[in-house]
Amino acid sequence: MKDVNVGICGLGTVGGGTFNVLTRNAALIAGRAGCNIRIARVASRRNRDDLELGDIPFSTDIFDVVQDPDVDVVVELIGGYDTAKELVMSAIRHGKHVVTANKALIAVHGNEIFDAAEKAGVVVAYEAGVAGGIPVIKAVREGLAANRIDTVAGIINGTGNFILTEMRAGREFSEVLKEAQDLGYAEADPTFDVEGIDAAHKLTILASSGIGVPLQFEKAYTEGIAGVTPYDIAHAEQLGYRVKHLGIARRREEGIELRVHPTLVPKAHLIAQVDGVLNAVMVDGDAVGQTMYYGPGAGDEATASAVIADIVDVARAVATASDQRVPYLGFRPEAMEDLPVLSMEDIQSAYYLRIQALDRPGVLAKIASILSEHGINIESIMQKESEFKDGRIPVIILTHTVQERQMNLAIADMESLGDIDGKVIRIRAENFN
Ligand SMILES: NC(=O)c1ccc[n+]([C@@H]2O[C@H](COP(=O)([O-])OP(=O)(O)OC[C@H]3O[C@@H](n4cnc5c(N)ncnc54)[C@H](O)[C@@H]3O)[C@@H](O)[C@H]2O)c1
Ligand SMILES: N[C@@H](CCO)C(=O)O
Ligand code: NA
């Protein structure tokens, strides 16, 4: 049995997990890959005492991996945009295949990287970058190749889902974020998780590989979880909904919706049941119908599982002519559709609204009349006893689906009423029918 030699760059959470699983399951993986996956070199800022490198060469300079003539596959697990891009482009120039867990890199520089890789005839694989250990890229690029996919949506940031889940149980935001960092789930800069940037990176990649549009991260709408309050989580629950942080890519006739934001999901839907660091991606194909992919979205060995699956694919691809391989984004570049990304005003969604009404007669009628003027139908409405002891009465409304432009106008009209105090709180809602 021959060897395929890999060089691991970055010995952090994912690098350590990859090293351990490749070592522990070496014989099993060789049996599947048809060759031995040999770790030929590792490089990272610092070595780790807990990993048994034995006589595997270690260096602090990751570019040593690219220069090493022994290395067939460069495994990029350092993260970030700039050095990672330099490393990957250099690997491609050296004719080496690349496996990466870096969704930021692929979402932002993927078009350029795949173009260079195509010319060099090498593979660049990124399964670990999207929904961690869940083989969702494999599913959309290969398993669903027969389908026209119109919607890809789901929970694609483990840290954010972990925080929302724990907040539902009454824990405090910053304490839970700290725990997610200690567990190795969070990005080096955790604002990427909290502000939805990481989810937007992944959604960008899913929209391309599922729906078949070019990577266009800069056009994704991104809203994080920091504004979600325990109060709204509890009231969404009373309405039969759970607040989840979702990425949604949806093809419509006029273009494609590409958005990341907190979303109410019916409690009975599978996505609402996905808690903690788990991720779930729902893919709707015209032939197959709705499918769901569920599992750990982050963590050392869970992510390593996806990294190594890509290494095995590369090992098999080495024997295949480069023009017969699975296209980088699942579609040949000329088969990508240049659908415009719709502005948020043009998206369609249902909405949860929380309005602080002053305790005056007729206020509810005024709110209902504004919604009706803008063609917005009410699904349910709750008027709460004032819990604020200041005369303000929370009115909670769930609407039917409407264009966001109409909702913006209705909210502006409501906020200009003398009977409303402050801003109307709005969380989008999805039924996934
Ligand atoms: N942690 C997860 O659960 C997870 C899951 C999926 C994808 N990812 C992605 O995997 C990548 C790695 O994440 P991680 O959590 O393992 O990060 P990490 O911070 O734990 O590990 C990164 C390692 O790379 C090293 N490194 C960084 N820059 C370097 C440089 N210029 N030269 C030498 N060494 C360098 C660091 O010292 C560190 O050991 C990121 O792109 C991340 O987004 C992480
Ligand atoms: N920080 C990311 C890691 C997995 O991509 C998350 O929490 O989902
Ligand atoms: Na994955």
TrEMBL record:
SUPFAM superfamilies: ACT-like (SSF55021), Glyceraldehyde-3-phosphate dehydrogenase-like, C-terminal domain (SSF55347), NAD(P)-binding Rossmann-fold domains (SSF51735). CDD domains: ACT_HSDH-Hom. InterPro entries: ACT-like_dom_sf (IPR045865), ACT_dom (IPR002912), Asp/hSer_DH_NAD-bd (IPR005106), HDH (IPR016204), HDH_cat (IPR001342), HDH_CS (IPR019811), NAD(P)-bd_dom_sf (IPR036291). The keyword Secreted does not apply. GO terms for biological process: methionine biosynthetic process; threonine biosynthetic process. Coiled coil: none annotated. NADPH binds at residue 103. Pfam families: ACT (PF01842), Homoserine_dh (PF00742), NAD_binding_3 (PF03447). It catalyses: L-homoserine + NAD(+) = L-aspartate 4-semialdehyde + NADH + H(+). Keywords: Amino-acid biosynthesis, Methionine biosynthesis, NADP, Oxidoreductase, Threonine biosynthesis. Residues 352-428 form the ACT domain. L-homoserine binds at residue 187. The keyword Heme does not apply. It is an enzyme of class 1 (oxidoreductase). Its EC number is 1.1.1.3. Pathway: Amino-acid biosynthesis; L-threonine biosynthesis; L-threonine from L-aspartate: step 3/5; Amino-acid biosynthesis; L-methionine biosynthesis via de novo pathway; L-homoserine from L-aspartate: step 3/3. The active site is at 202 (proton donor). Belongs to the homoserine dehydrogenase family. This is Homoserine dehydrogenase. It comes from Marinobacter oulmenensis.
